[in-house]
Every structure is written in structure tokens, then in C-alpha cells.
Amino acid sequence: MGVGELGNFAAYGFAPASLIAPLGCVSVIASAVISVVFLKETLRASDIIGGTLAVAGTYLLVTFAPHTSTHITAHLVQYYAMSWHFLVYLFIEVIVFCVLLYVYKRRKVKHIVIVMLLVALLASLTVISVKAVSGMITESLKGHLQLTYPIFYVMLIVMVASCAFQIKFLNQAMKMFDATEVVPINFVFFTASAILAGIVFYQEFEGLALLNILMFLLGCLLSFLGVFLIARNRPKIKQQDRTFIAMGKIPGGRHTDKVQPEAKSLTYGSLAAKLMCNRAGQTDDS
Asked: What's the Rg (C-alpha) of the chain?
């Protein structure tokens, strides 16, 4: 898993973010194949149809996505960060995030869409910062040192902070909802936010033909539908219900008030304490 995430991080330094993010559907397909081959899960018709749609969508994404990736330098990142369209985008994102956080924390609205939107808004900042950090590291390895500029460390802090809070909200979603609901919604929201971040911040669709844009969006739609079909109706892992019955409510049985000795006594936790418990149990049985 760590090697895969490292490869994903490196990919942002060589390819557009709008191309890397939608290819996450490949991991969903791989998970479905592993579950059938190794975990002996039943291969369903929706798995076959969903996998076919996801593969077709991936083909369209790779074919019609923007392939020209600019060299990410510190000066270029500073220029993008101060552009008016990104500042407007960032202002709107902060407002929406604060409203959703207020509804989620203060109003106690525990809806999956609200939690996943919080994750997606953080993910857009993660994609922007990851691509900036990865691109500047790539340029530094080529001989053009970029690590001396303050914008590199600003993006590094944004990357770490957004990843941490993103994982926090995602873990909360996994505790409240089933994985079959979280996975497809998270994939759709994350991909949409990553594509939007690439368009707004890195201007990746600039100069792209209308046909390429339409076919790219069709590829995203097919990938979304494929992931939904693969994830839906998966076996849900339910926690066993734990029912506790008070000792005084057990029919035909008695109990003593103090079977366990006091924590301050000398016999607490010792062999004598265990003997006391055993004697008390024998007295109740008799």
C-alpha cells in the first residue's frame, strides 16, 4: 500500500491531476478481482458489467485527457496561487467547508453526503499541494533546485494538514456508514474535486478541444457508474449485538454486593482475592 501511494505521489509530478485522479477506479477493479480470486466471493453480473464500464471509462480517460503537463516550478506555483480565479475558488471552498462543518458538528447532521463533501473539499487542496510538491521535487532532481523557495514548504504544510484531516473525516465516515456506501461516493466526490482543482489551479483544460472534453467527461461518467455497480450490494460487515443482563435480573440466581475486594485493600488482585471470589460463587450456588 505504501509503495502504491508513493507511486501515486510521483505520478502527479509527470502527468495532469485530471488524468491521475480518475484512474483510481483501477484500484476498485483490482479489489473486486482479488475478492473473487482469493477471498472466494461470488462473481456477480454487476461486477462484470461494472468492470467493463470502468475499463471503457479508463480507456476514454487515457485517450482524451490532457497529456501536456507543464514543468512545475516554484515561480509557476506562486503565479497560479495568486491568480484571481483560484482565489475565488478558494474563497468559495472555505465558505462551503465552514457551513458543512457547522452542520456536521453543531447541528449533528450525520449524513454521508455531508461527510464525503468535507473529504472532497479537503481532497482538492491535497491534489493541488501534492502536485506542486511532487513537481518541484521532480524539477530539483533534474538539476533545477526548487526546495529553497518558501512556496515549497507552504505547499508541503498544506499537503500534510489536508491529508490528516481528510483521513480523519474518512475514518469517521467508515465508522458511521458501510464501506459499500463510502467507497463509491468517495471516489466520485474525490475525482470531481481533483478534476476541478486541476482545471482551476493548473489550467489543465486550457486549449483542449471540445470533443476531448466531452469524451473525457463521458469516461468519468462510465468510471463512476462502473465503481457504483461493483461496490453496490456487497456483503456488509455487521457488528454483533452485545446484550448485557444485570446479575440481579437472572432468574433463579443470587449475587453478592461485593464479590471483588476493594482496590485499596491488600488482597486486591492477589490469589486471596481470587479465592474470595470463588468462595462467594460457591455460596451462591449452594
From this structure: 27
pLDDT, position 238: 45
CA distance 272 to 266: 9
pLDDT grade, residue 239 (50/70/90)? very low
Q: Cα separations (Å) of 170 from 89, 120, 127, 251?
A: 23, 10, 16, 45
Kindly tell me the sign of the dihedral angle through the C-alpha atoms of 255, 261, 267, 268: positive
C-alpha cell at 99: 457551513
Interacting residues of 193 by C-beta distance below 8 A, sequence separation 6+: 120, 121, 123, 124, 127
Regarding predicted confidence, which is higher, 178 or 128?
A: 128
What is the total residue count of the chain? Answer: 286
List helix spans (H) across the chain. Answer: 2-11, 17-20, 25-37, 45-64, 74-81, 84-105, 112-141, 150-176, 179-200, 210-231, 271-285
Q: Can you give the pLDDT at residue 169? A: 95
Cβ contacts of 199-204, under 8 Å, gap ≥ 24: 199/18, 200/85, 200/86, 200/89, 201/80, 201/81, 201/86, 201/89, 201/128, 202/16, 202/17, 202/70, 202/80, 202/128, 202/131, 203/80, 204/16, 204/17, 204/18, 204/66
- The span from the CA of 236 to the CA of 15, in Å, is 36
Q: List b or e across 150-167, with b for residues whose CB sees 16 or more CB atoms inside 10 angstroms.
A: ebbebbbebbeebbebbe
CA distance 248 to 219: 63
Kindly report whether the global pTM for this prediction surpasses the value 0.85: no
Angle at alpha carbon of residue 248, lines to 247 and 249, rounded to 5°:
90
